[in-house]
Amino acid sequence: MKKYLMIRRILLPWQRRDSTQNESSPLIPKAGSGKGDVEEEITEETNNGLDNNSPAFTRIQPRYSLMDYFLKYLLFLCNLVFTVLGLVILGLGMWGLISKESFAQEKISSIGTDPMLVLVTLGFVLTILCLSGCVGSLRENCWLLRLFSALVLVLISVQVLVAILAYTLQDEVGNYLRSGMLAAMVRYQDDLDLRFITDEIQSNLQCCGADNYRDWEINIYYNCSAPGVLACGVPATCCVDPLENGTVWNSQCGVGAQQLDEFTAQSVIFLGGCLGGISRWVEQHQGLIGIVSIVILGVQILALFISTRLLESIQWHKAYK
After folding, report:
1. Are the C-beta atoms of residues 238 and 208 closer than 8 Å to each other?
2. Rounded to whole angstroms, how far apart are CA atoms 34 and 122?
3. DSSP-derived 3-state class of residue 249
């Protein structure tokens, strides 16, 4: 009640005490009056209970600009799309591992070369990264936005580092690809995913084996000492013309190809290895690879800039609340 009466005294100026000397001299100020008296009155009223929350001292709160809202919902929508994509990739990877029983005791030792593990890792990283940016931007959560910015910065650094190492250590990268290709050829008949990847590489690049077509001797089914019909053969994707009469897929077209000399074999299968084919493909498409890499890196830098700008705006507005 006391506070209400004081506010009422401020809002009703005709109830204030007359500060003039008398009615005959209304324009002559009293000695010592003026700005000092006004400041004294405001200080007295403040000490008596008025604070910055009272109607007499209403603080003007800063408002978000249209650019702030645009950046907020742009970051939210983009991260929402990639979060859903990450969950789909993660689900496919886990489904692949479970359906092939890759966690079984007899297969757990070779899980490191399972292509599904790449999908699981990619989906998990993409989901965590984009989910933090999605929720952080929508809820204006500074901690999640800092986490998103840090993860994007780490991702950019890793990509730049990998590109530098791949350029400077080309021989080591080639040896790693050779080891991976040979491992896939060893498990060609046992892992459907590795078979699919190997067949796609051989058919699209028109190659056979890692270095040449005789590398298929490493596989127990295509080894010349194997008892089966595939002995000394190669997969049908190594064949120059795997279609019989142009319509029917001939899965036996590579049978006995390793027993042929190179002059005879070149009319039946591709003689060159896939490592050389990959190198030629990279050289032919290095411009496209560079453009795609720059675009991906630019998108990540843009996301880092937007999250940093949004984080600064949120912190600035929270400081005035």
Report:
1. yes
2. 73
3. strand
Contact yes or no for 239/205 (Cβ under 8 A): no
The CB density around residue 52, as the number of other CB atoms within 10 Å, is 9
What tens digit of pLDDT does each residue of 235-292 get?
999 999 888 666 677 888 888 898 888 888 888 999 999 999 999 999 999 999 999 9
Q: What is the dihedral angle through the alpha carbons of 174, 208, 206, 267, rounded to the nearest 10 degrees?
A: 140
Q: Residue 144 corresponds to which tokens in the numbers above?
A: 């999640």
Q: How far is CA 238 from CA 139, 257, 263, in A?
A: 55, 10, 16
Q: How far apart are CA 51 and CA 54, in angstroms?
A: 6
> Tokens 């999640």 belong to which residue?
144
C-beta separation of 223 from 146 below 8 A: no
- Neighbouring residues of 288: CB distance < 8 A, sequence distance ≥ 6: none
Q: What is the spatial distance between Cα 165 and Cα 169, in angstroms, rounded to a whole number?
A: 6
8 A C-beta contact, residue 102 and residue 116: yes
**Tens of pLDDT, residues 281-290:** 999 999 999 9
CB 185 within 8 A of CB 218: yes
Q: Which residues of the chain have pLDDT under 50?
A: 1-36, 38-52, 54-58
* DSSP H or E segment with residue 231: none
Structure tokens, 274:
């896939």
Q: CB-based contacts of 127: which residues, under 8 Å, 6+ apart?
A: 83, 86, 87, 90
Concatenated DSSP letters of 71-114: HHHHHHHHHHHHHHHHHHHHHHHHHHHHHTTTTSTTTGGGGGG-
- Return the DSSP state at 239: B
- 3-state SS of 165-196? HHHHCHHHHHHHHHHHHHHHHHCCCCCHHHHH
- Is residue 197 within 8 Å of 204, Cβ to Cβ? no
> What is the C-alpha radius of gyration for the chain, rounded to an integer number of angstroms?
37
Identify whether the C-beta of residue 19 lies closer than 8 Å to the C-beta of residue 33.
yes
